[in-house]
């Protein structure tokens, strides 16, 4: 009987020591922590798209035109028109053409298509497959502006800008992605962005993408992310106005503060940006 009691006490003591060791982290290792995953993903089917399959002028149910020759805040040299010579659908592509010709008060004509009021989006994945113009003085862009005026000065930059693709012809192989806000913009030299070298921008089609969630804006080319702007916990609308609807813009500017830094080579015109498709995939919560 005494031996049984002694054995029982030894077993209890061993169990007690094991419990102390475990609580102190000296026992068997726990499972490796799993990395956190984003709660956001994008649908696999577009909710809005244009495949540019119908020849003629761009689909008026999806696109409108910004018109004017006033420089667009950047001392640009083109007059944006709604003429079919400057924007048309042919051979399965949207073709925006910048032409050297008297137009309005300017000596160049071009087109600037906008989806405002016909395609306005809060968050999503935006894919645009395009081939860019080439030559000194061209300044094509695929970008987004706020569709409303919810913040600050009721305009730019307070309500935000997302540049999915910007390119200047004097720096042919370099691609740019940027965001602009009241706190972060090029006018005060605080804008956030990045650039990447990509060969064949004007010879081949590439896919330009923006992935926009409540947590971040990420810019990609051909599936490769090269810029991410994350929303910090301290950010308010001056840093992060990206919680309201935005619309798409497709255009070729000529000259201007950036595109014209090294002048304009008139011998290159006409120049075209060809767009194979525009597809918008909505954000879904996991």
Automatic annotation (TrEMBL):
Domain of life: Bacteria
Annotated ranges, domain GH16: 40-286
Matching InterPro entries: Beta-glucanase-like, ConA-like_dom_sf, Glycosyl_Hydrlase_16
Entries under Gene3D superfamilies matching the protein: 2.60.120.200
PROSITE patterns in the record: GH16_2 (PS51762)
Similarity-based family: Belongs to the glycosyl hydrolase 16 family.
Protein name as catalogued: Beta-glucanase (GH16 family)
Organism expressing this protein natively: Dyadobacter fermentans
